[in-house]
Design brief:
- It contains 1 helix and 10 strands.
- The protein is mostly beta strands and about 130 residues long.
- It has a single domain, classed as Lipocalin (Beta Barrel), CATH 2.40.128.
- An 8-stranded antiparallel β-barrel has the order 1-4-5-6-7-8-9-10.
- It is globular, with a radius of gyration of 14 Å.
Length: about 130
């Protein structure tokens, strides 16, 4: 039931982007980096438990990690459903250090939700679950 509710809420988030703030908790993360012009394989999943807020009213995503992460949305790129039934919204951002990147919020057809954060030389992904407030 929780997965269904989370899927419905994320679908609404992905398809309507309205003036709301969404709350999630990370459950694990993985990363890969570009070394000598080549992307490495994804790392093993590591446990994680951090609050994530997605504030579409103010175009800000915050991840409350030991080093606070703040992403200001500068441009919405796409919002679509892929061939596998997954829904995704993608946008460009500038972070708290004035670095630019791209973020993807993804809801897979099986109900899993992820947040991808992509820079030119590193990217990571968080598995997330909807948080009740």
């Amino acid at each position: 039931m929780k997965k269904l509710l989370m899927m419905i809420l994320l679908c609404l988030c992905v398809t309507t982007i309205n003036a709301q703030t969404y709350y999630y908790n990370t459950t694990e993360f993985a990363y890969k980096q570009k070394l000598y012009g080549q992307w490495t394989n994804w790392s093993d999943w590591e446990k994680s438990d951090m609050l994530v807020t997605i504030d579409f009213t103010n175009d800000i995503v915050r991840i409350y990690s030991p080093t606070h992460q703040k992403y200001t949305i500068t441009q919405y790129i796409s919002n679509y459903t892929d061939a596998y039934g997954g829904k995704q919204i993608e946008f460009r951002f500038i972070d708290q250090d004035y670095d630019y990147g791209t973020m993807r919020l993804r809801l897979e057809a099986n109900g899993n939700a992820q947040i991808y954060i992509d820079y030119a030389n590193i990217m990571w992904v968080y598995n997330v679950i909807r948080r009740d407030n």
